Amino acid sequence: MKLSIPGRASATAVVTAAVLLTGGSIAGAAPAPVAVAAAPDLPVANVKAHLTQLQSIATANGGNRAHGRAGYKASLDYVKAKLDAAGFTTTVQQFTSGGRTGYNLIADWPGGDTGRVVMAGSHLDSVTAGPGINDNGSGSAAVLETALAVARSNYQPTKHLRFAWWGAEELGMVGSRYYVNSLTTANRSKISGYLNFDMIGSPNPGYFVYDDDPAIEKTFKTYFTGIGVSTEIETEGDGRSDHAPFKSAGIPVGGLFSGADYIKTSAQAAKWGGTAGKAFDACYHSSCDTSSNINDTALNRNADALAYAVWELSA
Fold first, then answer.
1. Which one of the listed residues 169, 170, 234, 312 is annotated catalytic?
2. What's the predicted TM-score (pTM) here?
C-alpha cells in the first residue's frame, strides 16, 4: 500500500540546489532542481516471504532458531545468501557465548561516505522455546527487505549504509555488544546513527518509537504522522535490545517496537485498535510465536517506516 508522506508530492522529492552565478549569467535565472530519491514502499508480501522461510528453518531444526543451534546458523545463511546475490559486501563475525558459537552478519552497501555510517539492525536469534517469528523474525525480515530495496533501486546515498543481524540477543545483547566492543574508537565515531528493529509485527500491536536520539525519533514520528498513526514513546524495551550497546558507546540510536508482554490499555486500544486488557504479544518467548503470530498492518507500517528512515537519514 502506498503511503503519503508530508512534504512529498511524488515518489521523488525535488529540492532547490544553490547555483553559483558567474560573469555573463542571466540575473534571476531559476536554480537547477536536483532529484533526491524517496524511500520505496516495501511490499509486505516480500517481508512475509522472509518470515515464511524463517518459520520453515525453525520447523526443520528443532522448532527454534536460537543461539548456538542449527536453526540460527541456517537463518543467517538464508539472509547472507540474499544479500550476497544483491551485491552487498557481507562479513560474518564469530563469537562464543555459553559455550556455543554465535554469529553476527554485517552487510555493507558499496559507496557513500564511510566516515558517516547509517546502520539498521535487528537480532536474528529466537529463544529456545519457539521459532521467534515476531521476536525477532519481524525485525530481521524488514531490515533484510529494506536492504534488498536499496539494491533493487541502486540507491546511492551520501552516507554509507550498513545493515546488521545480531546473534545471542536473547542471552543479553551478546552479539551486538561484541560488535561494538570490537570497533576502534575511530570507527565508533563514524557511525552517525544506529536504528534498531525488535518485534515490529505484534498481533495486538502498538506503535512505539524510541526516544533516544532526537533527530532519529523525529524522523520516525514524521513518517507515522504522515500516515495518520499516533505513536507513543517506547519504554517496555529500554535497555533490553541491541541498541543498548551502541547507546552506551555514545552512538546515536533510535528504533521501533510494537509491544511484547505489556498489556494494552483501553486508551491504546481506542487509538490503535486491537484488544484492551491483552498483551501486545501473548506469544512472546513462547512456542506459539509462529508465522501466524503477526499483524500484517503493523508489519507493513513499521517496515515502510524503517525504509523511510534509512533513506532520510542517509541522503
1. 169
2. 0.90
